[in-house]
Specification:
Elements (H helix, E strand, L loop, with lengths): L2 H19 L4 H20 L7 H28 L1 E7 L5 E7 L8 H27 L6 H26 L12 H30 L2
Antiparallel strand pairs: 1-2
Helix pairs in contact: 2-3, 2-4, 3-5, 4-5, 5-6
Protein name: Golgi apparatus membrane protein TVP23 homolog
Keywords: Membrane, Transmembrane, Transmembrane helix
Membrane topology: Multi-pass membrane protein
Amino acid sequence: MSSVERELSNGSNSAIQAEIQKLPHFGVLVATVAFRISAIASFLLLGLFTSSFVVQTVVTLLLLALDFWTVKNISGRILVGLRWWNQVQPDGSNALLFEFRPETDVSNSVERNVFWWSLYLAPICWTLLGLICILKFELNWLFVVFIAFVLQTTQLSAYWQCARVASKGKSWSTADSLGAVTYMSRQFERLGAVFKRSSETNQESNRGGEP
């Protein structure tokens, strides 16, 4: 390598390091994006290394769970100064509670943009994957896609509501819509009802085809 090439390489490395140093929470930012991308990559590419549906499902769901936990408990609080959690009310209902830090305490625009864009893009990606599964008649994967979609939309909905509450200047608030746990449970109930109706339809068609 010539001296010119070494200087260019050192210059580019220095530029990259300088940009990274501008990000005060670079590790959190990487974890936020890495788990989200890893879950999608596992769903798409893990089949190249194993033919086991169970292994692919477990690994993908594990990565989705890690992503959900990281974004909910770490990324939102550090990158955008928002926090939400579900609380069971005395009457047994679920409600979302929100907290936020002042905008001046969360000043890095790059970290904010990456956080919000990852929240918006993740449900879109899983929706497209679900459509692909339907078109390819790989219906067994729809359950994984559905869980991923519910988790991602729950995060997006909760943080969107939290940001709305923060814009009103309140330190905390109870959501005026479904809590995350209630939303997820209702979606799983709907999915179960769909599978139940599909099973009943198949049984009736099989009985009708018997002589």
